Amino acid sequence: MSAGKILAADYKHMAMLKFVGDVRVLMSSTLDNYCNALYRRGILDAMVVDLSETRGIDSTALGLLAKMAIQLRNRFNVKPTIVSTNPDITHILHRMSFDLIFSIIDKPVKLQTSLSELQQKQETESSLRQKVLDAHVTLMALSEENKLEFQDLVQALKSQH
Hints:
By secondary structure, this protein is an alpha/beta fold.
């Protein structure tokens, strides 16, 4: 898998994230910091997450995206859009019930602005463990299938506290 990176852009009252390569748990702090800044905005009319150049994405990154979608709905009444041109990733998104909290499209989007790479953030093992736990608890709340899939992991992470 190719090393992953997260790109971001703003255009008027729209935000965009683009995941490139292999997006894994070690990038969770970068994504979480971006999302926390996003929640502090006064206005947000749309959010697009472009996965068209994503080669792999783990459940922690998916859980953080789910958490973001729920927060955006609650704070701004926005249902984010995910662009996924890779049938394997699109299948994962549907299997994880992302169609409940995202609009999922399979056609690339054209941006009116340029993307810049978010800087990778380092974090402690306990902080990373907490992000993994939060991400998977969020995924579990989306569907019974997710609950069954992640309950052992969540229980193990909770017991490490």
